[in-house]
Write a structure and sequence with these properties.
Chain lengths: 482, 482
């Protein structure tokens, strides 16, 4: 008979009917109670086995992660925390799972680190199935927000011939061999012989291409993989991660900040509504994890409180100049507790400063804007009427508690002459970006956009602390298994 | 004043109010009528300029693709094909577009080929803006279908250390230099020194990783970029394209075919409803294009008729064995009109055979299934009880008129011993795919999935004929511009 998903069985109030469920054994208690999970929800359905009429051999095969099919009567459950259970009349083992060999034994309390080496199996645990369902829901919320608001999804290229994006170190993409590499007469690598006839890399951002589409379709967004070949072995960096980059014609920086704040609140609200059970589980997981920490390091708010706090409060908008004043006069700066002491306007903010502003000073998400021009990218809109030596650009970063920078964006420089001069000063070839400059040559206009690192958002919403735990198969230095 | 999007102005029946619109000039007629477009819809809003009170200099700057802001009164239009227009009281040129330099002049009837070289600007034309809006809507329909049906979105890795996917030639991803490449003592490239500590490539499919997630979350799908380093300079191949790969635990091949057919019909229906104006435009574009073709080569159905036909008819399900019989007895086979004459069971079908089945014989989408084992991939489920030498696997391909193969899928081999034997026969290292085999070692079960090349779907829905015209920045041999 056709099987029913566990989530549908648990929501079913029509008892006494015959049902079939298929899934994986989470646990088997007293030779009688199977907790069966099929991934459709974090909740298991209890299947009560008629152990007196089931062979010893079959009972022995009901092990953690074995795949089984059970048929029986759906009845009201007398157990706690579950409305219905299945009184099993037929049990079939679809696929065994040898308990001597199955790597994830909960009684061994596997560490997150160990589970990363079992990335293909960790999603069978409660925590990782919850994280990945939340990730999926957040992804959909991203699409739904933009589509409902008249944005068009654009797939910018992954392999790029442009090396002027300037957001970081790039991976080379090539079909050339290391042995017998084709060479020019001067002995250089002859990229004309490569697949694309030129040097190509993996994209670090779809922004520049996205801008060309915004200047035609008005409002666009990307949501795709981006790459950094940086040797950053931290809990906040991945070599391959997913980025969301909206770009809007005729938006100035204020409208850009409004968009980012509204967007983030929407996707969190949507996920709170759709993933209640998963988030409650992750909340209790976090509480459990923090029990081993000293009081001072524990979160002040529970996971759900933290998410609701973000929804209910405005992000604090602070100019870079104001932020520098706050930091200069702050206790950790005066007492030289910061590793980098803030001495004057123009300093690049480090993560310790961002954390101080967000976690100690404002205690809410913060949008910093109007940064010094010389610490930001070439395409950002130069502010007018600034003092010489104190030029600023219409950049903004959104900082989140526990996460740090989650969004980086700006109003873009729409004036061809200013943009070209800036590129010249930085040694970026005009010919390299002829197509980007065309958007300023033909029908240029004010426009703005931002990038949001999707995994950092998933970190925030799930309460996890290592970015490798919120993407199915993390790519980091020395690690491309699976 | 805040501007209103063109799509909202055109749907606005509250006339006589003051409005502002911003966008790009599509055309300027009689020194008076601006057709203004902002990308929100294929339709322009007519802006009537008070030319007697506008300087000659300003009027001259109203050129194709110039960005302008107009403020004025929204009034009922007397013109044909538009309900409202703007009686302009204030006009501002935001960004000029020098008509001597702007590359896309419609009076020159730019070819699709020329426009490909202007991929950053072609989206400002009616045809490409329509295509890209349809593409965006189709993308969202994909996500919505799966999410509504309880599938979870999974981001499988783009950079892969696994070279056993076997779906085609791969691009190398590396941070090693061609000059002074680190070498082992034996003189081989020392990939231990590379970023990931091993040889890595761009993925050709997320299926194998997707399967591991399906065996935990039950129903999953991927939707991301995939790559082929094949020198195929055709109108149907890209080096970088987007693929959708659902995978479902406990689904057999029949359920897999049901899913694929239901999915395709859903996304087409959704797009027909949401993109009526764009599809009507593309339909007329196609009609226009086909006028230059001899009668015999023109489509029998208009674009919208074709799309509705797919919705209203069942896909014809035909076994490979039946298909071979049909082909063997077909007129083109007997008259030796095929380039590859079908002589016996076991032959691999060429695109000419697929086209005959779909376009001449069945005249509808066709699902071919149960292919000979030795022309299909190692992970496909071997059928039981077949004659020796006539082993088949539970594979299916969906063939579409004008497009050819749009879906390739299968029930997966869930039996560890059969799978291992198959891999051995093909020389695929077990150690290479230890994690994939784990899904068969621990809680294995029947499961199935398929891959759908997204650009082929966009081709079908938009009626375009070259795959380079349905992705923003196509990547093909010798081409990675932008």
């Amino acid at each position: 008979m056709k099987h029913t998903k566990v989530i549908d069985l648990l929501n079913n109030t029509k008892t006494l009917q015959e049902v079939t469920a298929k899934g994986w054994v989470r646990s088997f208690r007293n030779n009688q109670f199977i907790a069966l999970n099929d991934g459709s929800t974090i909740n298991n359905i209890q299947c009560v086995v008629d152990f007196e009429n089931t062979s010893e051999e079959t009972l022995k095969r009901i092990t953690t992660s074995a795949a089984v099919s059970v048929t029986g009567t759906l009845i009201e459950s007398k157990g706690k925390g579950q409305s219905v259970e299945i009184q099993v009349t037929k049990l079939e083992i679809l696929g065994d799972s040898d308990p001597e060999k199955y790597p994830i034994q909960l009684r061994n309390r596997p560490s997150l680190e160990f589970l990363r080496e079992q990335a293909h199996l960790r999603v069978r645990t409660n925590a990782f199935s919850a994280i990945m369902r939340v990730r999926s829901t957040l992804s959909f919320a991203v699409h739904q927000y933009f589509q409902e608001n008249g944005f068009f999804y654009v797939n910018t290229p992954i392999i790029t011939g442009s090396d002027a994006e300037g957001a970081g170190e790039m991976f080379k993409v090539t079909a050339l061999p290391f042995d017998g590499t084709p060479r020019t007469e001067e002995g250089k690598v002859n990229y004309k012989e490569d697949f694309f006839g030129k040097e190509t890399n993996l994209t670090v951002s779809g922004q520049l291409e996205g801008e060309t589409y915004a200047m035609a379709l008005g409002q666009i967004y990307t949501f795709g993989p981006t790459f950094r070949a940086e040797n950053s072995n931290t809990s906040r960096h991945l070599a391959e991660f997913w980025m969301i980059e909206p770009e809007v014609a005729f938006n100035d920086l204020d409208a850009n900040m409004d968009l980012a704040e509204d967007f983030i609140k929407y996707v969190i609200k949507y996920t709170l509504e759709k993933c209640e059970d998963d988030l409650k589980f992750l909340e209790s997981r976090l509480l459990e994890e923090e029990k081993s920490k000293p009081q001072a390091e524990r979160s002040e708010m529970s996971l759900l409180e933290k998410l609701k706090f973000v929804l209910e409060n405005n992000f604090k908008r602070v100019s870079y100049t104001e932020a520098i004043d706050i930091l200069k006069n702050s206790t950790p700066n005066k007492k030289k507790k910061f590793n980098y002491i803030i001495e004057e306007w123009g300093a690049d903010l480090q993560s310790e400063h961002e954390r101080f502003l967000v976690e100690k000073h404002f205690k809410c998400p913060v949008i910093l804007f109007d940064y010094p021009a010389n610490i930001k990218a070439f395409y950002m809109r130069l502010n007018e009427n600034t003092e010489p030596g104190k030029e600023t650009v219409r950049a903004m970063d959104i900082l989140f508690p526990g996460i740090g920078e989650i969004v980086g964006g700006s109003q873009r420089e729409e004036r061809l002459d200013v943009l070209v001069e800036k590129m010249k000063a930085l040694g970026i070839e005009e010919e390299e970006l002829w197509w980007y400059l065309d958007t300023r040559r033909f029908g240029s206009a004010v426009h703005s956009g931002f990038g949001l690192g999707f995994e950092r958002l998933v970190l925030f919403v799930t309460g996890m602390t290592n970015i490798r735990d919120v993407i199915p198969f993390p790519r980091t230095p020395q690690n491309a298994e699976f």
